[in-house]
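tokens incoming
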């Protein structure tokens, strides 16, 4: 594998993970992290956590969160169906 100083250690680790595990399995973890962050942010906004003013959950924000979760499930589906 050609080493690129511009990639950095994270980029090289990701390249090795993709080569060993495959693209779909490697992408599952970051997508799950992002989905968790979106759900967590929605809950913090709704409850007014960390000292912020509470914001109601409207249909658009709920639909966006549902799409993110659906995308995470679609990416993980091959691993889940084994």
């Amino acid at each position: 594998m050609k080493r690129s100083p511009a990639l950095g250690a994270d980029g090289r680790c990701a390249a090795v993970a993709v080569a060993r595990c495959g693209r779909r399995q490697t992408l599952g973890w970051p997508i799950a992290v992002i989905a968790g962050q979106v759900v967590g942010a929605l809950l913090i906004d709704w409850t007014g956590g960390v000292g912020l003013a509470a914001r109601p959950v409207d249909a658009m924000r709920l639909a966006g969160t549902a799409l993110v979760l659906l995308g995470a499930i679609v990416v993980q589906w091959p691993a889940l169906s084994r």
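note: The mean pLDDT is 77.
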